[in-house]
Specification:
It contains 5 helices and 4 strands. Strand 3, helix 4 and strand 4 form a beta-alpha-beta unit. Helix 1 packs parallel to helix 2 and helix 4 packs parallel to helix 5. It starts with 15 loop residues before the first helix and ends with a helix.
């Protein structure tokens, strides 16, 4: 969830217009190269888990969000995605905290961040204030309030409690009703989660 500015762009930290221009040019360049290779994406996500203000120095927590600046940077990325994708790609704005989504997207809307198609959420049960049923209610409320599709773009539930990587069972706290860790419970979790968005 870090939103650190690229080193090469640090000189634009105090100049939102110039930084927004960098975001636009970089996004346009990446998408243009993909188009030339006939790899234009169906979805373009502007940022990843951007609950905080984006493109801040490493020692800046990103709170409170300066929405004038944040909106300018997000809208620059959106504008590039709309231009290069000829309006075909669906634009996703993705935040991590599903329980804070209504507040975050309300602030974004009031700041002028409106030209996107999908509200993207991360949902990891052990770090969320919402259980899976509450998440479903939240998704329905977001769809109704913002007339946008809602997509869970990040989630996980382990299928084993053995250490098969270097993360030391970071997702070891299993949500109620999905224990023990098993391929069957993992599949059930994903299917139940999908139903919450329908």
């Amino acid at each position: 969830m870090q939103q650190i500015i690229p080193k090469a762009w640090e000189k634009y930290l105090g100049d939102t217009d110039s930084l927004a221009a960098r975001v636009y040019l970089y996004s346009n360049d990446v998408l243009s190269r993909l188009a030339l290779a006939q790899l234009s994406p169906d979805y373009v996500q502007i940022g990843n888990e951007i609950d905080r203000e984006i493109m801040v120095p490493w020692d800046n927590k990103g709170y409170p969000i300066n929405w004038v600046r944040n909106a300018a940077l997000l809208n620059a990325g959106i504008k590039a995605a709309r231009k290069e994708g000829n309006g075909q790609a669906k634009i996703i704005i993705h935040i991590a905290n599903a329980s804070n989504a209504n507040h975050w997207f309300w602030a974004a809307k009031n700041a002028g961040v409106t030209d996107f198609d999908i509200i993207g959420l991360s949902y990891y049960a052990q770090w969320s204030e919402l259980n899976i049923a509450e998440l479903g209610q939240n998704i329905k409320a977001l769809k109704k309030r913002y007339t946008k599709d809602v997509m869970i773009v990040e989630t996980a539930l382990p299928w084993t409690d053995k250490w098969n990587d270097q993360l030391h069972n970071v997702l070891a706290v299993m949500p109620k009703g999905y224990q023990p860790a098993s391929p069957e419970n993992q599949a059930r979790w994903l299917l139940d989660l999908k139903k919450r968005g329908d």
